[in-house]
Amino acid sequence: MITRICSVNEESLREAKSILSEGGVVAFPTETVYGLAADARRDDAVSEIYRIKGRPSDNPLIVHVHKDYDITQLVFDDRAYAAKLRNAFLPGPLTLVYRSKGKVSKIVSCGLDTLAIRVPSHVGAQMFLRYTDMPLAAPSANLSKHISPVSAQHVYADLNGKIPLILDGGVCTGGIESTVCDVTGDFPVILREGLISREMIEAVTGKCEVYKLKSGEAARSPGMKYKHYAPRCKTRLFEAEESDKAEECFKTCMLQGIKAYVLCEGGVAQRFPQDRVLDLGRSENEMAANLYNLLRQGEAVADLIIAIKPTKQDGIMAGVMNRLSKACANE
Ligand code: TXA
Ligand code: MG
């Protein structure tokens, strides 16, 4: 199969709709990462997503809709605080998990009685969702376990020959996936941290918890248990206060002829040779936006990525830290 990259315009949108109407898949841009979309109502189409990505069949998908879509077609909207969250943050990088009405393919939620819905703010994503006018199931458009794509070229690198069309909406400005927040209970529970932080949600609803998987318990968000976001080279992760140790590790690599690159925040970068640094930048938003791009750059040239956690770890950085830790996890 030939994979084409096209900017979002009338012609490419028409083609995208025709592919989706036949049960096919199309990659599209969002403000967080690129998604791989299929008609959420069709078993055959949704199965294609799992097959193409090599995604475990018990990791549910998010359904994407445009900003005027009536979500009560798909879910029960019975919590007053959920409406407050929508008003405050949507369209934007917040996915809400509701009780499902069972109107989309069962494969989307892997048999759970809930459904995750996201309204992306990216202009190209909105055009795509409006033009195709169907609820679209979409995970990130990478091969399962690999780093999420933040450009059309990243999607191409993973899925060339496997999908017919990538809609190109430029580089994603957010850089890490949406916050996934369960709104079925008495108060919101964050299942995956992201660009809408716990603090931001708490400011709107008064209370918000971050779900932590306890050992032996079935994951409330099944995706949590899988290795994710991993570069194809080796990695080592150091705490923010361990930059001395990281420097030692780098020097040892140099002596042994191991090509090591250091992924770290701007303030720490000057400790290492400039041509061996993957510089995350200084602000939270910069670090989120740069992370996946740098991990992809790193895996292309490095034997080893030595990552040093940034100093600030709350707010948006909780999401960045979660992705960085998973990318550098050893299992
Ligand atoms: O920013 C994003 O959310 C991107 C773009 C493309 O929209 N999408 C994305 O999808 O990151 P994916 O499939 O890579 O991650 C979806 C996450 C997984 O952790 C999954 O377990 C969780 O959402 N999820 C989906 N449906 C769920 C449900 N019904 N209950 C609990 N967790 C759910
Ligand atoms: Mg993903």
Low-confidence stretches: none
How many structural domains can be distinguished in the coordinates? 2
Query: Could you tell me the number of beta strands?
Result: 16
Major sheet details: 10 strands, mixed
How would you explain this protein's 3D organization?
32% of the residues lie in helices and 19% in strands. The protein is α/β, with parallel strands linked by helices. It folds into two domains: 207 residues, DHBP synthase; 94 residues, Rossmann fold. Strands 2, 3, 4, 5, 6, 7, 8, 10, 11 and 12 form a ten-stranded mixed sheet that branches. The chain has a four-stranded parallel sheet with strand order 13-16-14-15, with helices on both faces. Helix 1 crosses helix 4 and helix 9 packs parallel to helix 10. The two termini are 33 Å apart. The site of magnesium ion has 3 residues, from loops.
Name its key features.
single chain, alpha/beta, Rossmann fold, 331 residues, DHBP synthase, binds threonylcarbamoyladenylate, 10 helices, 19% strand
